[in-house]
Amino acid sequence: MRMGEMGPQLGSVIASVMFVCTVFRQYLPPQLRYYVDKYTHQLVKLFYPYIQITFDEYTNEFRKRSEVYSAIQSYLSTKSSTIVRRLKAHDVKDSKSLVLAMDDNEEVTDEFQGIKVWWVLVKREPRQTSFSFYPQSDEKKHYKLTFHRRHRDVVTGAYLAHVIKEGKAITVGNRQRKLYVNNPSRNWYTYRGSTWSHVVFEHPATFETLALHPKMKEEIVNDLIKFRKGKEYYAKIGKAWKRGYLLYGPPGTGKSTMIAAMSNLMDYDVYDLELTTVKDNTELRKLLIDTPSKSIIVIEDIDCSLDLTGQRKKKKEKDEEDNEEKDPVKKKMEKEESQPSKVTLSGLLNFIDGIWSACGGERLIVFTTNYVDKLDPALIRRGRMDKHIELSYCCYEAFKVLAKNYLDLESHELFETIERLLGETNMIPADVAENLMPNSVTEDADSCLKKFIEALESAKEEARKMAEEEEASKKAEEEAKLKAEKEEKEKQEPAKDEVKCNGTSAKEEDAK
User: Fold this and answer.
1) Is the Cα dihedral 34, 35, 38, 44 positive or negative?
2) What does pTM read for this prediction?
3) Do 215 and 304 fall into the same domain?
4) Greatest CA span in the chain, whole angstroms?
5) Which helix (H) or strand (E) segment is 18 a member of?
6) pLDDT tens for residues 39-59?
7) What is the spatial distance between Cα 480 and Cα 477, in angstroms, rounded to a whole number?
8) How confident is the model at residue 79 (pLDDT cuts 50, 70, 90)?
9) CA-CA distance, 12 to 18, in Å (whole number)?
């Protein structure tokens, strides 16, 4: 028999043997299946020249999706959209375009450095059917990679590294930014429970539209870009790849808007951490661990979030009769909710700058407050809150940004008057924007500017009256204080002897 004819016949024999072994395995005792599997695999290794690698969708952790699986899915989505016949849309970007991926049990061929490989998305069906509200736990998916064994080193090394790198880049380009909020801990371990819930974050704020002085704006943007490119630098100096920002100033000065602008500039997700729902420091660390890289962790109004210096006042308990009438389960849940948070200042400091803060990288931590003086100095020192940004009243440069945004004006004859009034009056950017916004479609830029000037003059007059009232009140308090001190001094002085007309005192007259 010729060598060319021997190959196909040998392959047919091996396939028949494998089929027979598979059939007999179902009827063999468990003790004999081990030997059948062992010798079957040895036979395959001798004559089958291909290697297979599987990538499971979920890791060993409960319901945690594998990052490698997600990267492969994104990478293959660019290959399968033009080759595979059966596709499925697994994501929507900006509500305008679909991200397509290969459907179950479809195969995609890829080539790398002249090496051909095959990808298949395999879905393992449940072994038995059961009627349950939850899906079968063994219903899983995995990608199967097949390649010739002579290309083992290249595929397991350079090719897989290429797939993961390209897949992550595609994922970042396709993903939508999200706004997360932490869930109560009682929901973390339920079916499909998670520490964070999210919605799509589509805030339009950018640094170009932010009402801020251009120099301060440029400084903040440069600082953020330097941080994003600073992975090697932070590793070199031995610090965790994170940076803290403290935004402080009166209400309405744009603290939340700046966070949205930071998210749009950096392309980071926002994690809004509500400290009042966190029971203790352990839960706080758990939330930090579940926060991935490329994220902004925000604690707004941190001076009002928790009493970090002591226990908060407990709520008044209801009458015993009302408690007895309630359902025990509901009563237990209400009792747990009413328990004050045990998050301490030490736990929060460890969250920001302790050992646990190094679990992950490329994260921004942002605190906002209206009253920076109320915060503990240890909480906002450099190294924890690295950059302090004061967002104060609207200046003339910030007004020009708002005029450009709302009225499409870069100059106007009334700007000189507005510049003078802004130098004499304190007005927050939110009030400036409200006055510049047209109230109707017929209102033009001139009328909006005149309306704004009237508002500035009114605010100036009101501030003058308040200053006069404050001065009068202060003067009255000082006069009352001086009067009280004078009366107190007169009471403390010893009574002097009264002298009569004849020259004798009252004491001498009593002696007589």
Assistant:
1) negative
2) 0.70
3) yes
4) 162
5) helix 3-25
6) 766 666 667 788 889 998 877
7) 5
8) confident
9) 10
**Amino acid occupying residue 33:** R
Considering only CA atoms, which of 16, 422, 423 is closest in space to residue 435?
A: 422
Phi, psi (deg, nearest 5) at residue 125: -75, 155
Structure tokens at 2: 């010729």
The amino acid at residue 8 is: P
pLDDT for residue 116 = 92
pLDDT at position 324 = 52
The string of DSSP letters for 446-491 reads HHHHHHHHHHHHHHHHHHHHHHHHHHHHHHHHHHHHHHHHHHHHHH
Could you tell me which of 426, 434, 441, 447 has the C-alpha nearest to residue 405? Answer: 434
What are 190's two structure tokens? 């339920």
26 is a domain residue: no
Question: Tens digits of per-residue pLDDT, 83-124?
Answer: 666 666 655 555 555 666 667 777 888 899 999 999 988 887
Q: CA-to-CA distance for 237 and 275, rounded, in angstroms? A: 31
Residue with tokens 């935004």, as numbered in its chain: 247
Distances 448 to 132, 146, 406, 412, 443 between C-alpha atoms, Å = 63, 68, 10, 12, 7
Q: Among 141-145, 187-191, 212-216, 333-337, where is mean pLDDT lowest? A: 333-337
Range of the domain at 210: 179-309+342-390
| Residues 118 and 189 occupy one common structural domain | no
CATH number at residue 293: 3.40.50.300
How many Å apart are CA 118 and CA 111, to the nearest integer? Answer: 9
* Residue 243 Cα distances to 47, 66, 105, 177, 384, angstroms: 57, 27, 45, 20, 8
| Sheet of 50-56, strand order | 50-56, 140-148, 115-124, 107-112
Q: Which two tokens stand for residue 295?
A: 């994220």
Identify whether residues 381 and 443 lie together within a single domain.
Answer: no
Token pair, residue 423, equals: 């130098």
